[in-house]
Write a structure and sequence with these properties.
The protein has 60 residues and is mostly helical. The protein has one domain. The longest helix is centred in the last third of the chain and has 29 residues. It is elongated. The two termini are 14 Å apart. Keywords: Membrane, Transmembrane, Transmembrane helix.
Length: 60
């Protein structure tokens, strides 16, 4: 696995925040469900960033 550089870490933060914002827009009634969706969005965004970084590493 490649070494994580500062540029890679800086890529994770916006992707995780994008996932959180994307999942936070789902209309729900309870604050617990909203918090859960935000947490899931953070995880999905970070996993997508990791997948994208790994794919870029294999293509180069």
């Amino acid at each position: 696995m490649q070494n994580f550089l500062i540029a890679n870490v800086l890529f994770f933060v916006p992707m995780a925040l994008f996932g959180m914002v994307l999942f936070a827009e789902v209309p729900v009634r309870s604050k617990v469900a909203h918090g859960g969706l935000c947490t899931v969005g953070l995880a999905v965004g970070a996993l997508f960033a990791l997948l994208l970084l790994e794919l870029i590493g294999t293509m180069v």
